[in-house]
Protein backbone atom coordinates (compact mmCIF):
# COMPACT_ATOMS: atom_id res chain seq x y z
CA UNK A 1 0.00 0.00 0.00
CA UNK A 2 2.68 2.41 1.07
CA UNK A 3 4.82 1.38 -1.85
CA UNK A 4 1.95 1.84 -4.25
CA UNK A 5 1.11 5.36 -3.19
CA UNK A 6 4.78 6.24 -3.33
CA UNK A 7 4.97 4.98 -6.90
CA UNK A 8 1.84 6.87 -7.90
CA UNK A 9 3.12 10.04 -6.22
CA UNK A 10 6.45 9.70 -8.01
CA UNK A 11 4.73 9.29 -11.35
CA UNK A 12 2.54 12.31 -10.72
CA UNK A 13 5.69 14.29 -9.93
CA UNK A 14 7.25 13.02 -13.12
CA UNK A 15 4.19 13.99 -15.16
CA UNK A 16 4.16 17.47 -13.63
CA UNK A 17 7.86 17.84 -14.34
CA UNK A 18 7.39 16.84 -17.98
CA UNK A 19 4.31 18.99 -18.52
CA UNK A 20 6.27 21.93 -17.20
CA UNK A 21 8.49 21.93 -20.29
CA UNK A 22 6.54 24.43 -22.38
CA UNK A 23 9.15 26.53 -23.99
CA UNK A 24 12.80 25.98 -24.78
CA UNK A 25 16.01 27.93 -24.83
CA UNK A 26 18.03 28.20 -27.99
CA UNK A 27 20.64 25.82 -26.54
CA UNK A 28 17.99 23.17 -25.86
CA UNK A 29 16.68 23.55 -29.39
CA UNK A 30 20.16 23.21 -30.90
CA UNK A 31 20.67 19.99 -28.98
CA UNK A 32 17.38 18.47 -30.13
CA UNK A 33 17.68 19.50 -33.77
CA UNK A 34 20.62 17.23 -34.59
CA UNK A 35 18.71 14.43 -36.32
CA UNK A 36 17.31 13.44 -39.71
CA UNK A 37 13.74 14.62 -40.31
CA UNK A 38 11.09 14.01 -42.97
CA UNK A 39 7.56 15.11 -43.84
CA UNK A 40 4.85 12.99 -42.26
CA UNK A 41 2.82 12.99 -45.49
CA UNK A 42 2.84 15.03 -48.68
CA UNK A 43 2.37 18.59 -47.45
CA UNK A 44 -0.23 20.79 -49.12
CA UNK A 45 1.14 24.25 -49.92
CA UNK A 46 -0.92 27.05 -51.45
CA UNK A 47 0.70 28.67 -54.47
CA UNK A 48 -0.57 31.86 -56.04
CA UNK A 49 -0.43 31.98 -59.83
CA UNK A 50 -1.73 35.38 -60.96
CA UNK A 51 -5.25 35.66 -59.53
CA UNK A 52 -5.79 32.10 -58.39
CA UNK A 53 -4.31 30.05 -55.62
CA UNK A 54 -3.64 26.41 -56.48
CA UNK A 55 -2.62 23.49 -54.30
CA UNK A 56 0.94 22.25 -54.54
CA UNK A 57 2.40 19.35 -52.67
CA UNK A 58 5.76 19.03 -51.04
CA UNK A 59 7.90 16.34 -49.51
CA UNK A 60 10.80 17.50 -47.35
CA UNK A 61 13.82 15.98 -45.75
CA UNK A 62 16.03 17.99 -43.42
CA UNK A 63 19.18 16.53 -41.92
CA UNK A 64 20.91 18.52 -39.24
CA UNK A 65 24.32 16.96 -38.98
CA UNK A 66 25.50 19.49 -36.42
CA UNK A 67 23.55 22.24 -34.74
CA UNK A 68 24.65 24.70 -37.44
CA UNK A 69 24.87 22.44 -40.51
CA UNK A 70 22.03 21.24 -42.70
CA UNK A 71 21.41 19.13 -45.73
CA UNK A 72 17.96 19.21 -47.33
CA UNK A 73 15.97 17.69 -50.14
CA UNK A 74 12.69 19.30 -51.15
CA UNK A 75 10.48 17.78 -53.83
CA UNK A 76 7.44 19.60 -55.22
CA UNK A 77 4.48 17.96 -56.95
CA UNK A 78 1.35 19.24 -58.65
CA UNK A 79 -0.80 16.25 -57.68
CA UNK A 80 -1.72 14.87 -54.28
CA UNK A 81 -0.61 11.36 -55.15
CA UNK A 82 2.97 12.56 -55.52
CA UNK A 83 3.45 11.15 -59.03
CA UNK A 84 3.83 14.42 -60.90
CA UNK A 85 7.05 16.02 -59.71
CA UNK A 86 7.64 19.62 -60.79
CA UNK A 87 10.91 20.64 -59.10
CA UNK A 88 13.51 19.18 -56.77
CA UNK A 89 15.92 21.16 -54.66
CA UNK A 90 18.88 19.70 -52.86
CA UNK A 91 21.01 21.85 -50.63
CA UNK A 92 23.80 21.80 -48.09
CA UNK A 93 24.82 24.73 -45.97
CA UNK A 94 24.83 26.47 -42.64
CA UNK A 95 22.18 27.74 -40.22
CA UNK A 96 22.51 31.01 -38.40
CA UNK A 97 20.05 31.34 -35.56
CA UNK A 98 18.31 34.71 -35.47
CA UNK A 99 15.88 35.84 -32.79
CA UNK A 100 13.14 34.09 -30.86
CA UNK A 101 9.72 34.37 -32.47
CA UNK A 102 7.61 37.06 -30.83
CA UNK A 103 4.44 35.06 -31.40
CA UNK A 104 5.50 31.47 -30.71
CA UNK A 105 7.52 31.16 -27.52
CA UNK A 106 10.46 28.83 -27.91
CA UNK A 107 10.47 29.00 -31.73
CA UNK A 108 13.52 30.61 -33.37
CA UNK A 109 13.93 32.26 -36.73
CA UNK A 110 16.79 30.69 -38.67
CA UNK A 111 18.70 31.75 -41.73
CA UNK A 112 19.61 28.88 -44.05
CA UNK A 113 22.54 29.72 -46.32
CA UNK A 114 23.04 27.17 -49.10
CA UNK A 115 26.77 27.85 -49.33
CA UNK A 116 28.06 24.32 -49.83
CA UNK A 117 25.66 23.17 -52.49
CA UNK A 118 22.38 24.12 -54.17
CA UNK A 119 21.09 21.86 -56.92
CA UNK A 120 17.85 22.42 -58.79
CA UNK A 121 16.09 20.04 -61.14
CA UNK A 122 13.09 21.04 -63.26
CA UNK A 123 10.75 18.21 -64.19
CA UNK A 124 8.22 19.85 -66.52
CA UNK A 125 8.50 21.52 -69.94
CA UNK A 126 6.53 24.56 -68.69
CA UNK A 127 9.07 25.24 -65.96
CA UNK A 128 12.03 24.66 -68.28
CA UNK A 129 10.55 27.22 -70.70
CA UNK A 130 9.83 29.72 -67.93
CA UNK A 131 13.37 29.45 -66.53
CA UNK A 132 14.96 29.67 -69.98
CA UNK A 133 12.94 32.74 -70.93
CA UNK A 134 14.50 34.68 -68.08
CA UNK A 135 17.94 33.17 -68.51
CA UNK A 136 20.26 35.14 -70.76
CA UNK A 137 23.19 32.77 -70.48
CA UNK A 138 24.23 30.25 -73.07
CA UNK A 139 23.50 27.22 -70.90
CA UNK A 140 19.78 26.45 -71.14
CA UNK A 141 17.94 24.40 -68.53
CA UNK A 142 17.07 20.87 -69.58
CA UNK A 143 14.19 18.86 -68.20
CA UNK A 144 15.16 16.37 -65.47
CA UNK A 145 18.81 17.47 -65.61
CA UNK A 146 20.10 18.66 -62.21
CA UNK A 147 21.90 22.00 -62.24
CA UNK A 148 24.34 23.04 -59.58
CA UNK A 149 23.45 26.69 -58.98
CA UNK A 150 25.48 27.17 -55.79
CA UNK A 151 27.35 30.11 -57.30
CA UNK A 152 25.31 30.63 -60.49
CA UNK A 153 22.71 33.29 -61.19
CA UNK A 154 19.05 32.14 -61.18
CA UNK A 155 16.96 35.07 -62.47
CA UNK A 156 13.63 33.37 -61.61
CA UNK A 157 14.63 33.56 -57.94
CA UNK A 158 16.39 36.94 -58.24
CA UNK A 159 19.58 35.14 -57.32
CA UNK A 160 22.78 36.71 -58.65
CA UNK A 161 25.99 34.91 -59.54
CA UNK A 162 28.34 34.37 -56.60
CA UNK A 163 25.44 34.88 -54.24
CA UNK A 164 24.20 31.95 -52.18
CA UNK A 165 20.60 30.91 -51.79
CA UNK A 166 19.24 32.19 -48.49
CA UNK A 167 15.99 31.11 -46.87
CA UNK A 168 14.37 32.02 -43.55
CA UNK A 169 12.23 29.76 -41.46
CA UNK A 170 11.12 29.12 -37.93
CA UNK A 171 12.32 26.09 -36.01
CA UNK A 172 10.48 24.67 -33.04
CA UNK A 173 10.74 21.22 -31.49
CA UNK A 174 8.23 19.62 -29.15
CA UNK A 175 8.52 15.99 -28.11
CA UNK A 176 10.05 14.26 -31.10
CA UNK A 177 8.43 16.54 -33.69
CA UNK A 178 10.14 19.27 -35.69
CA UNK A 179 8.02 22.27 -36.67
CA UNK A 180 8.99 24.82 -39.28
CA UNK A 181 7.10 27.95 -40.31
CA UNK A 182 3.76 28.03 -42.09
CA UNK A 183 3.15 30.09 -45.23
CA UNK A 184 0.07 32.31 -45.50
CA UNK A 185 -3.06 31.49 -47.55
CA UNK A 186 -1.26 32.69 -50.73
CA UNK A 187 1.89 30.66 -50.13
CA UNK A 188 4.12 33.68 -49.44
CA UNK A 189 7.47 32.58 -48.06
CA UNK A 190 8.85 34.18 -44.93
CA UNK A 191 11.63 36.73 -44.99
CA UNK A 192 13.97 38.03 -42.33
CA UNK A 193 11.71 40.99 -41.57
CA UNK A 194 8.46 39.02 -42.06
CA UNK A 195 9.02 35.81 -40.11
CA UNK A 196 6.41 33.05 -40.32
CA UNK A 197 3.37 33.65 -38.13
CA UNK A 198 2.54 30.01 -37.57
CA UNK A 199 3.91 26.50 -37.55
CA UNK A 200 3.46 23.84 -40.21
CA UNK A 201 2.37 20.25 -39.62
CA UNK A 202 5.47 18.69 -38.05
CA UNK A 203 8.29 16.67 -39.54
CA UNK A 204 9.16 13.40 -37.84
CA UNK A 205 12.48 11.55 -37.44
CA UNK A 206 13.56 9.77 -40.62
CA UNK A 207 13.80 6.48 -38.77
CA UNK A 208 10.17 6.54 -37.75
CA UNK A 209 9.49 3.61 -35.45
CA UNK A 210 5.93 4.51 -34.41
CA UNK A 211 3.53 1.73 -35.41
CA UNK A 212 0.38 2.74 -37.26
CA UNK A 213 -2.99 2.06 -35.64
CA UNK A 214 -5.76 -0.16 -36.94
CA UNK A 215 -9.21 1.41 -37.27
CA UNK A 216 -10.29 -0.20 -33.99
CA UNK A 217 -7.20 1.05 -32.15
CA UNK A 218 -7.67 4.54 -33.58
CA UNK A 219 -11.31 4.65 -32.41
CA UNK A 220 -10.31 3.49 -28.94
CA UNK A 221 -7.54 6.08 -28.61
CA UNK A 222 -9.30 9.11 -30.03
CA UNK A 223 -12.30 9.00 -27.69
CA UNK A 224 -9.98 9.20 -24.70
CA UNK A 225 -8.60 12.63 -25.43
CA UNK A 226 -9.39 16.30 -25.89
CA UNK A 227 -7.30 17.40 -28.83
CA UNK A 228 -6.29 21.05 -29.12
CA UNK A 229 -4.11 23.38 -31.19
CA UNK A 230 -0.59 24.00 -29.95
CA UNK A 231 -0.58 27.58 -31.22
CA UNK A 232 -2.78 29.60 -33.55
CA UNK A 233 -3.19 27.87 -36.88
CA UNK A 234 -2.89 29.63 -40.22
CA UNK A 235 -5.67 28.86 -42.67
CA UNK A 236 -7.25 30.11 -45.85
CA UNK A 237 -10.46 32.01 -45.09
CA UNK A 238 -12.83 34.52 -46.69
CA UNK A 239 -13.14 38.16 -45.69
CA UNK A 240 -16.35 40.24 -45.58
CA UNK A 241 -16.07 40.78 -49.37
CA UNK A 242 -15.67 37.05 -49.98
CA UNK A 243 -12.01 37.53 -50.93
CA UNK A 244 -9.43 34.90 -50.00
CA UNK A 245 -7.54 35.89 -46.86
CA UNK A 246 -5.36 34.35 -44.16
CA UNK A 247 -7.17 33.58 -40.92
CA UNK A 248 -5.93 32.54 -37.48
CA UNK A 249 -7.77 29.96 -35.46
CA UNK A 250 -7.47 27.49 -32.61
CA UNK A 251 -9.35 24.21 -32.47
CA UNK A 252 -10.48 21.91 -29.72
CA UNK A 253 -11.81 18.54 -30.81
CA UNK A 254 -13.32 15.67 -28.84
CA UNK A 255 -15.25 12.49 -29.51
CA UNK A 256 -18.07 11.51 -27.12
CA UNK A 257 -18.19 8.17 -28.99
CA UNK A 258 -16.38 6.77 -32.02
CA UNK A 259 -19.21 8.01 -34.25
CA UNK A 260 -19.83 11.48 -32.80
CA UNK A 261 -17.68 14.57 -32.43
CA UNK A 262 -17.53 18.00 -30.82
CA UNK A 263 -15.44 20.84 -32.24
CA UNK A 264 -14.81 24.37 -31.00
CA UNK A 265 -13.10 26.85 -33.30
CA UNK A 266 -11.96 30.26 -32.06
CA UNK A 267 -11.11 32.99 -34.55
CA UNK A 268 -8.38 35.58 -33.92
CA UNK A 269 -7.56 38.79 -35.80
CA UNK A 270 -3.85 37.91 -36.02
CA UNK A 271 -1.27 35.52 -34.70
CA UNK A 272 -0.17 37.60 -31.74
CA UNK A 273 -3.63 38.55 -30.51
CA UNK A 274 -4.99 36.49 -27.64
CA UNK A 275 -8.59 37.79 -27.78
CA UNK A 276 -10.95 35.56 -29.70
CA UNK A 277 -13.43 37.36 -31.97
CA UNK A 278 -15.92 34.51 -32.04
CA UNK A 279 -16.29 30.89 -31.17
CA UNK A 280 -18.07 28.32 -33.29
CA UNK A 281 -19.11 25.08 -31.70
CA UNK A 282 -20.27 22.08 -33.68
CA UNK A 283 -21.63 18.77 -32.54
CA UNK A 284 -22.24 16.03 -35.00
CA UNK A 285 -21.70 12.59 -36.33
CA UNK A 286 -18.79 10.82 -37.90
CA UNK A 287 -19.17 8.34 -40.74
CA UNK A 288 -16.13 6.17 -41.43
CA UNK A 289 -15.27 6.13 -45.13
CA UNK A 290 -12.38 3.70 -45.42
CA UNK A 291 -8.64 3.37 -45.28
CA UNK A 292 -6.48 6.43 -46.08
CA UNK A 293 -3.09 4.76 -45.87
CA UNK A 294 -2.17 6.31 -49.23
CA UNK A 295 -1.85 9.59 -47.29
CA UNK A 296 -0.04 8.14 -44.29
CA UNK A 297 -0.21 4.56 -42.94
CA UNK A 298 -2.94 4.30 -40.31
CA UNK A 299 -5.02 7.25 -41.53
CA UNK A 300 -8.75 6.86 -42.23
CA UNK A 301 -11.21 8.79 -44.35
CA UNK A 302 -14.27 10.01 -42.46
CA UNK A 303 -17.20 12.28 -43.15
CA UNK A 304 -18.09 14.84 -40.48
CA UNK A 305 -21.76 15.85 -40.43
CA UNK A 306 -22.72 18.84 -38.30
CA UNK A 307 -25.98 18.25 -36.39
CA UNK A 308 -25.83 21.26 -34.05
CA UNK A 309 -24.16 24.62 -34.60
CA UNK A 310 -23.56 27.34 -31.99
CA UNK A 311 -22.01 30.78 -32.30
CA UNK A 312 -20.61 32.97 -29.55
CA UNK A 313 -19.54 36.48 -30.61
CA UNK A 314 -16.64 37.42 -28.32
CA UNK A 315 -16.57 41.16 -28.78
CA UNK A 316 -19.12 43.94 -29.29
CA UNK A 317 -17.90 44.72 -32.80
CA UNK A 318 -18.62 41.17 -33.95
CA UNK A 319 -21.96 41.12 -32.15
CA UNK A 320 -22.93 44.36 -33.90
CA UNK A 321 -21.83 42.97 -37.30
CA UNK A 322 -23.92 39.84 -36.89
CA UNK A 323 -26.92 41.84 -35.63
CA UNK A 324 -26.78 44.25 -38.57
CA UNK A 325 -27.75 41.42 -40.92
CA UNK A 326 -30.13 39.43 -38.77
CA UNK A 327 -32.40 36.99 -40.60
CA UNK A 328 -36.03 36.55 -39.58
CA UNK A 329 -36.63 34.36 -36.58
CA UNK A 330 -33.13 34.80 -35.16
CA UNK A 331 -32.82 36.55 -31.79
CA UNK A 332 -30.20 39.33 -31.60
CA UNK A 333 -26.75 38.07 -30.61
CA UNK A 334 -25.17 39.11 -27.33
CA UNK A 335 -21.46 39.28 -26.66
CA UNK A 336 -20.21 36.13 -24.95
CA UNK A 337 -23.62 34.48 -25.14
CA UNK A 338 -23.77 31.18 -27.03
CA UNK A 339 -26.52 31.28 -29.68
CA UNK A 340 -28.03 28.11 -31.08
CA UNK A 341 -27.81 28.43 -34.87
CA UNK A 342 -28.92 24.86 -35.61
CA UNK A 343 -31.35 24.81 -38.53
CA UNK A 344 -31.47 28.62 -38.74
CA UNK A 345 -30.82 30.91 -41.70
CA UNK A 346 -27.36 32.40 -41.29
CA UNK A 347 -26.49 34.59 -44.32
CA UNK A 348 -23.24 35.84 -42.73
CA UNK A 349 -21.99 32.25 -43.09
CA UNK A 350 -23.76 31.57 -46.36
CA UNK A 351 -26.04 29.07 -44.65
CA UNK A 352 -29.78 28.56 -44.88
CA UNK A 353 -31.82 26.60 -42.38
CA UNK A 354 -31.96 23.59 -44.69
CA UNK A 355 -28.19 23.33 -45.25
CA UNK A 356 -26.35 20.47 -43.64
CA UNK A 357 -22.62 21.05 -43.18
CA UNK A 358 -20.66 17.99 -44.27
CA UNK A 359 -16.93 17.52 -44.74
CA UNK A 360 -15.07 14.63 -46.30
CA UNK A 361 -12.05 14.65 -44.08
CA UNK A 362 -9.17 12.56 -42.82
CA UNK A 363 -8.49 11.23 -39.35
CA UNK A 364 -5.05 10.22 -38.17
CA UNK A 365 -3.64 9.62 -34.71
CA UNK A 366 0.02 9.27 -33.81
CA UNK A 367 1.24 9.13 -30.20
CA UNK A 368 -0.32 12.16 -28.48
CA UNK A 369 -1.05 13.89 -31.81
CA UNK A 370 -4.36 13.94 -33.66
CA UNK A 371 -4.72 15.13 -37.25
CA UNK A 372 -7.52 16.05 -39.61
CA UNK A 373 -6.98 16.75 -43.30
CA UNK A 374 -5.49 19.96 -44.69
CA UNK A 375 -8.02 22.61 -45.75
CA UNK A 376 -8.69 23.22 -49.45
CA UNK A 377 -6.64 26.26 -50.58
CA UNK A 378 -9.77 28.14 -51.75
CA UNK A 379 -11.11 28.20 -48.15
CA UNK A 380 -14.17 26.13 -49.12
CA UNK A 381 -15.13 22.90 -47.39
CA UNK A 382 -13.72 19.52 -48.34
CA UNK A 383 -17.10 18.36 -49.68
CA UNK A 384 -18.10 16.48 -51.78
CA UNK A 385 -15.47 13.72 -51.92
CA UNK A 386 -13.81 15.24 -55.02
CA UNK A 387 -12.82 18.23 -52.83
CA UNK A 388 -11.22 16.12 -50.14
CA UNK A 389 -7.53 16.82 -49.51
CA UNK A 390 -4.89 14.16 -49.12
CA UNK A 391 -2.51 15.94 -46.72
CA UNK A 392 -2.55 16.55 -42.99
CA UNK A 393 -3.45 19.78 -41.23
CA UNK A 394 -1.60 21.01 -38.13
CA UNK A 395 -1.56 18.55 -35.27
CA UNK A 396 -3.84 18.75 -32.26
CA UNK A 397 -2.29 17.64 -28.99
CA UNK A 398 -3.90 15.98 -26.00
CA UNK A 399 -2.07 17.70 -23.14
CA UNK A 400 -2.99 14.81 -20.83
CA UNK A 401 -0.73 12.47 -22.73
CA UNK A 402 2.85 13.49 -22.77
CA UNK A 403 5.12 11.18 -24.70
CA UNK A 404 7.26 9.35 -22.21
CA UNK A 405 10.70 8.61 -23.35
CA UNK A 406 11.08 4.86 -22.84
CA UNK A 407 14.57 5.41 -21.59
CA UNK A 408 13.40 7.87 -18.98
CA UNK A 409 10.71 5.53 -17.69
CA UNK A 410 13.09 2.59 -17.57
CA UNK A 411 15.68 4.52 -15.61
CA UNK A 412 12.94 5.88 -13.39
CA UNK A 413 11.67 2.35 -12.73
CA UNK A 414 15.19 1.29 -11.83
CA UNK A 415 15.39 4.06 -9.28
CA UNK A 416 12.06 2.99 -7.82
CA UNK A 417 13.15 -0.64 -7.64
CA UNK A 418 16.38 0.33 -5.91
CA UNK A 419 14.40 2.24 -3.31
C1 LIG B 1 19.69 12.31 -44.54
O1 LIG B 1 20.37 11.24 -43.94
C2 LIG B 1 19.96 9.95 -44.41
C3 LIG B 1 20.66 8.91 -43.57
O2 LIG B 1 22.00 9.20 -43.43
C4 LIG B 1 20.24 9.84 -45.90
O3 LIG B 1 19.79 8.58 -46.37
C5 LIG B 1 19.51 10.94 -46.63
O4 LIG B 1 19.81 10.92 -48.01
C6 LIG B 1 19.90 12.29 -46.05
N1 LIG B 1 19.09 13.33 -46.65
C7 LIG B 1 19.58 14.50 -47.02
C8 LIG B 1 18.62 15.48 -47.55
O5 LIG B 1 20.75 14.78 -46.89
C1 LIG C 1 0.67 16.14 -64.20
O1 LIG C 1 1.17 17.37 -64.68
C2 LIG C 1 0.75 17.71 -65.98
C3 LIG C 1 1.50 18.95 -66.46
O2 LIG C 1 1.75 19.85 -65.44
C4 LIG C 1 -0.77 17.88 -65.97
O3 LIG C 1 -1.22 18.20 -67.25
C5 LIG C 1 -1.42 16.59 -65.48
O4 LIG C 1 -2.80 16.76 -65.35
C6 LIG C 1 -0.85 16.20 -64.12
N1 LIG C 1 -1.35 14.91 -63.69
C7 LIG C 1 -1.96 14.74 -62.48
C8 LIG C 1 -2.33 13.34 -62.14
O5 LIG C 1 -2.18 15.66 -61.74
C1 LIG D 1 29.73 28.23 -45.44
O1 LIG D 1 29.61 29.21 -44.42
C2 LIG D 1 30.18 28.84 -43.18
C3 LIG D 1 29.88 29.91 -42.17
O2 LIG D 1 30.08 31.18 -42.68
C4 LIG D 1 31.70 28.64 -43.34
O3 LIG D 1 32.25 28.21 -42.13
C5 LIG D 1 31.92 27.59 -44.42
O4 LIG D 1 33.31 27.44 -44.66
C6 LIG D 1 31.21 27.96 -45.70
N1 LIG D 1 31.35 26.87 -46.65
C7 LIG D 1 31.64 27.07 -47.92
C8 LIG D 1 31.79 25.85 -48.76
O5 LIG D 1 31.77 28.18 -48.39
C1 LIG E 1 28.07 22.35 -56.50
O1 LIG E 1 28.95 23.44 -56.64
C2 LIG E 1 29.65 23.82 -55.47
C3 LIG E 1 30.42 25.10 -55.72
O2 LIG E 1 30.66 25.31 -57.06
C4 LIG E 1 30.56 22.67 -55.07
O3 LIG E 1 31.30 23.02 -53.90
C5 LIG E 1 29.66 21.47 -54.75
O4 LIG E 1 30.42 20.35 -54.40
C6 LIG E 1 28.81 21.12 -55.97
N1 LIG E 1 27.84 20.12 -55.56
C7 LIG E 1 27.80 18.92 -56.14
C8 LIG E 1 26.81 17.94 -55.57
O5 LIG E 1 28.48 18.64 -57.08
C1 LIG F 1 -30.30 23.78 -30.57
O1 LIG F 1 -31.31 23.68 -31.56
C2 LIG F 1 -31.53 22.36 -32.05
C3 LIG F 1 -32.55 22.45 -33.18
O2 LIG F 1 -33.67 23.16 -32.76
C4 LIG F 1 -31.98 21.45 -30.92
O3 LIG F 1 -32.12 20.13 -31.40
C5 LIG F 1 -30.92 21.48 -29.81
O4 LIG F 1 -31.33 20.72 -28.71
C6 LIG F 1 -30.66 22.91 -29.38
N1 LIG F 1 -29.58 22.93 -28.40
C7 LIG F 1 -29.71 23.28 -27.12
C8 LIG F 1 -28.52 23.22 -26.26
O5 LIG F 1 -30.79 23.65 -26.71
From TrEMBL:
Keywords: Glycoprotein, Membrane, Signal, Transmembrane. InterPro entries: APCDD1 (IPR042425), APCDD1_dom (IPR029405). GO terms for biological process: negative regulation of Wnt signaling pathway. One of its GO terms (cellular component) is plasma membrane. The keyword Secreted does not apply. It is found in: Membrane. Residues 222-330 form the APCDD1 domain. Residues 1-23 form the signal peptide. It is a single-pass membrane protein. The keyword NAD does not apply. GO terms for molecular function: Wnt-protein binding. This is APCDD1 domain-containing protein.
